[in-house]
């Protein structure tokens, strides 16, 4: 029964089952017991929406689409959108905990985000008193896998493009104070980041140490 309890905890840890239970049944006259595991699968998706009004910038409609256990492989897909008076954020996150056909238990995460935030507090209004907004488009992918029983490794790459625009959507190179808004002098700056990370977990004291770059 102890092993059966561990199996139940392992299945629940996958995050795709609502309930898992074990029912013992006698196995004839052998003195053994057959264990039957009953599993109730979680709802694979959902939609949420809402809104609010406040003095803050982020007030506005909120909506999201959540997919759990996508394609029956415990893959997760989250799509969300937030719209405020000035700012807005659109996100797409996709996670595959175990890439099909890979014998190294490699997981994959993909992220895409498009955001717009106000820049007036830093750069001031334009001469026509219009607002300055900072737009960012970010996309990244990460792969993670066990290296040894107590070591996990992660490698990824992230790309970001950022630039300033006025209320009409036209790109801006200088702010109200004639200071440059981009390092390159172009309407937008591009940045590419590489990520390497190794995590050590000691099962004895449940501690962990992180080594990254």
From TrEMBL:
Principal localisation: plastid
Cellular location(s): Plastid, Chloroplast outer membrane
Domain Bacterial surface antigen (D15): from-to ranges: 69-200
GO biological process, one term: embryo development ending in seed dormancy
Domain of life: Eukaryota
Entry keyword Transmembrane helix: no
Protein keywords: Membrane, Plastid, Plastid outer membrane
Pfam family, one: Omp85
One cellular component (GO) term of this entry: chloroplast outer membrane
The protein's name: Bacterial surface antigen (D15) domain-containing protein
